[in-house]
Amino acid sequence: MKRVHLLVAGFAMLALAGCKGNESASATTAAEPAVVTVGPENVTVAVLTDLRSGPAVSGALEAERAATVRAEVSGPVVRTLAEAGQRVKRGALLARLDDTAVRDAYLSARSAVRSAEAALELAKRNAGRSERLASAGAVAERDLEASRYQATNAEGALADARARLALAQEQLQNTEVRAPLDGIVSERQADAGDVVQPGDALFTVVDPTSLRLAANVPVDAIGSLEVGTPVEFTVSGFDRRFSGRIQRINPVLDPATRQVRIYVSVPNREQTLVSGLFAEGRVATDIKRAVAVPVGAIDTRGTRPTVHQVKAGKVVASAVQVGVRDEVTDMVEVQSGVAEGDTLLLGSAQGVTPGTPVRVLQEGAGR
After folding, report:
1. What phi and psi, each to the nearest 5 degrees, are found at residue 239?
2. Hey, what domains does the chain have and what are their CATH numbers?
């Protein structure tokens, strides 16, 4: 009977010990934090890259060579032969204006020249005859001077008639509106039937192979500006950077904005860019190769800048020292605390507590 009691007591102790063991394991499991899944949009990698520093610039692209073709004579537009977006060669016919009145003036001027030529020929003959008669003493000196005066007047009348003919011929030629340069018609301001006056805009022709960036630079950066200095910029809608060089610097400061205007020559032989686009960039005064991360990877909420790295599958907070910042790429140099190839967290993922296990999803992977 005593043996049975001892066995029962033993089983009870074993059962109690088993219960305590299960409770301990459950407590350990509950203490371990859950794995946090991080998407690729919240992860970046430290890279070795070229960082460019310099004053920021912004402005619009404009054609370096552009011409507004204006009417030189008045009259109705008979026909237009070019449209916006059409490529033209220098001298190409863009439009014709009615030449009825101008042609009549030209024909009249040409007739006047012929009459003046005949009058001069007659005056010269009369003057020559007077010279011969005067030599024989058969003509008074007064008559000789009169014949000479008539010849001189006839020469002046012919010169005046020829000048009017040249003007009429030029006016007749101006009824044919031609392109002043190789390029593209960016705008047509006149239609057939419009009555135009001298000075009215008819077409705008631009050379798309060469643009310039008219940009503003803060006045405190004027000391770093020099003609020929490279400028790098981005344009909305393009996933690449473009470059040019400072061509001119406006010597007058804009008192309202406290900025200086610069003009950057931008080669565009591939005609990728077009006039009117807004550009943002930087005067590339210095280039440094360094380990860098996106500015968004730096947590500046504490007393020292920190980053949240993923090491051995867990989040690790590391203090860092930052250096040069590239305003165009929005990358910043990390001088200590991060090595090339390190994985860092961005955005909302920076709120994950250090020590938490994380799983980084690859691009395109399911969640």
Report:
1. -100, 35
2. 36-49+289-360 (2.40.420.20), 56-65+207-284 (2.40.30.170), 68-97+175-206 (2.40.50.100), 99-173 (1.10.287)
pLDDT value of position 12? 41
Sign of the CA dihedral 55, 61, 66, 70?
A: negative
For residue 84, what is the DSSP state? Answer: T
Q: What is the per-residue pLDDT for 1? A: 41
Task: Name beta bridge partners: 249.
Answer: 262
Kind and range of the H or E run holding 92: none
Place of tokens 């994985």: 343
Chain-wide mean pLDDT for the chain? Answer: 86
Whole-angstrom Cα distance, residue 219 to residue 224?
10
Higher pLDDT, 286 or 193: 193
Cα(182)–Cα(92) distance, rounded to whole angstroms?
9
Output the six-digit token pair for 7. Answer: 């066995």
As a whole number, mean pLDDT of residues 301-323 equals 91
- CA–CA separation, 270 vs 257, rounded Å? 35
